[in-house]
């Protein structure tokens, strides 16, 4: 149930009936200020001059028609034309009861779209570091949300498995001749140092790049070993992070190689690309360089090599033509904005993007330390993602041991893993993705505030109610009813779930789900502290409250699932 959408439709119908504007957006806002008003209609001002009379009179006219419906308990109109709405509790109950019995929390069906999501996308022969956290988990939330809403989701892990770095990596491999188990020891970092200091090494690098591009068998074999060993290592991180990416989602840069020669000749034919100084170059329409002249981007170098931009261009064409994407969403950090815009610009000039396809860069900010510098180790080295996750787990373990003596050793490991990983993810996801944020272990693992622990704690409280109470109370015969304002607020919060999901669908902003879950958990705590549940005197009250608690747990669990966070039964 999306209440706002429902009310909007009702009001639009009233407007049409009264000969007012069609498709009028009444701007319905949830009211957080006053205790007994649920929503406020702010858009009457847009109807000004469509009818004689003041804004107040217009609003009054609409509100009179609204009063005929039985969903409102109270409607009031302010002097300047705002309409305040309080919904009938019985109407809220009707919908929350529907949600209780529905398998998918009564989320309405949507038109199915094909959505390509480009996320994680680390480079081969480099360890995943803290910089990969955001792309990986933000993209994964969007994939989960879109799947839950019934879309056809195509995840694409655009790994960096091609290009000039492989000349260095293959040369380093030939130098070190590692066994299969040691192939992870071949790092881009070491290869680069040799390349810089050893001219012979550097000359081999050049030869190997050409060989690899010509698909030389020996080079391809080494390339494959390097790619597979990095993938194997990254899989451990995905598993630990509870990220849904698998092998079948990998489509790295190398995949698009077969398309590139044709694209280059097509761009030349269409007079979009030109030869310049033995390179192939595209002039961009919307970009100018520092001198104010049209900006050129190289898509093929003098030595015949293709670039990151060229690959992304082919990749975009593939996503449109072969994957038939309706939406393509890139989770890449904000520093690559210009790169993406350039790729899109070329693709649009070349007519590779069908009208229906929407391109979106869901960019994100950086993770900083308390001095607002990029978060690094004490020695100034980039933090490895696996180290960060392990530290979070061990910190969570300490907290749990300190707080608890009922949990067995076996359970402690499982619970600390879930809480450690959940906390790190939640902390990140709860921040507006477009902004930088400051990493802080104490805030992240706090039981107070908008944290994973706070939400999980509410969840475990409900589990303990369910363990103590008789489950027969949850049967269909019993209904959720509202007896106090605490229950009303909790019910109202539960009914905001769909609206929240739709915001995530539209904008890819998981922090809104975190804010939502925080509100829900808070409303539950107030209800729990002020209303007797298991000790309620009358049976129908007890049943209603148990059902309300159980539904709250269902929504929390689903919300956390969509954030890629596992729940715990106790902590
Ligand atoms: N491998 C790139 C990097 O580590 C990210 C790739 C993002 N996706 C894309 N289609 N360019 O910076």
UniProtKB/TrEMBL annotation:
Domain DALR anticodon binding span(s) in chain numbering: 455-571
KW Ribosomal protein (keyword) present: no
HAMAP family cross-referenced by the UniProt entry: Arg_tRNA_synth
Localization (cell): Cytoplasm
Domain Arginyl tRNA synthetase N-terminal: 1-87
PROSITE patterns with a match to the protein in the record: AA_TRNA_LIGASE_I
Motif placement: 'HIGH' region: 122-132
Subunit text: Monomer.
Protein name in the entry: Arginine--tRNA ligase
InterPro entries in the record: aa-tRNA-synth_I_CS, Arg-tRNA-ligase, Arg-tRNA-synth_N, Arg-tRNA-synth_N_sf, ArgRS_core, DALR_anticod-bd, Rossmann-like_a/b/a_fold, tRNAsynth_Ia_anticodon-bd
Key word Oxidoreductase present: no
Catalyzed reaction equations: tRNA(Arg) + L-arginine + ATP = L-arginyl-tRNA(Arg) + AMP + diphosphate
Organism this protein belongs to: Buchnera aphidicola
GO cellular component: cytoplasm
Gene Ontology terms, MF aspect: arginine-tRNA ligase activity; ATP binding
Lineage top rank: taxon: Bacteria
Annotated keywords: Aminoacyl-tRNA synthetase, ATP-binding, Cytoplasm, Ligase, Nucleotide-binding, Protein biosynthesis
